[in-house]
Amino acid sequence: MTKIKVIKTETAYQKAVKRTLVIFQAKEGAPEADELALLLLLVKDYEDKHISIPEVDPIEVIKLKMAERGMNNKDLEPIIGSKGHVSSILSGRREITLKMAQRLKDYFQLPAEIFLHTA
């Protein structure tokens, strides 16, 4: 096992990530398994403190996925509801419900959380 320290710099972070990838398949009970567990905790801690993931606008995600698939508003009616519902959702006048988020998740194969955050 290599000497493990708290990750304080980008260089140390990159080194820890590379080492994690090298030992990622460590078998339970092997010395590398303990090293991997520690590295994963340290990497997560560094990421939580230094790397922010931007919030995504669920409406923009829907529009992007529609464009990728060549869809129009009418194609969303079986997923969201009536023509009016689709229009209200895409214009931001109406919130995405939990049921809609579940359907969008299943249809677009994305995490439901994406559709539950409002911009």
Structure description:
The protein has 119 residues and is an all-alpha fold. The protein is 62% helix and 0% strand. It has seven helices and no strands. Helix 1 packs antiparallel against helix 2 (31-50). The protein starts with 9 loop residues before the first helix and ends with a helix. The mean pLDDT is 90.
In short:
This protein is mostly helical. It is built from 7 helices and no strands. The protein has helices at 10-22, 31-50, 58-69, 77-80, 83-91, 98-108, 112-116.
Low-confidence stretches: none
**Global structural class:** mainly alpha
> Could you give the count of β-strands?
0
Rg (C-alpha, Å): 21 Å
Pattern of helices and strands: HHHHHHH
- How many separate helices? 7
Sheet-strand content, in percent, reads under 5%
The chain-level mean pLDDT equals 90
What's the shape? elongated
Largest sheet: none
Distance between the termini: 45 Å
What level of helicity do the residues show? 55-70%
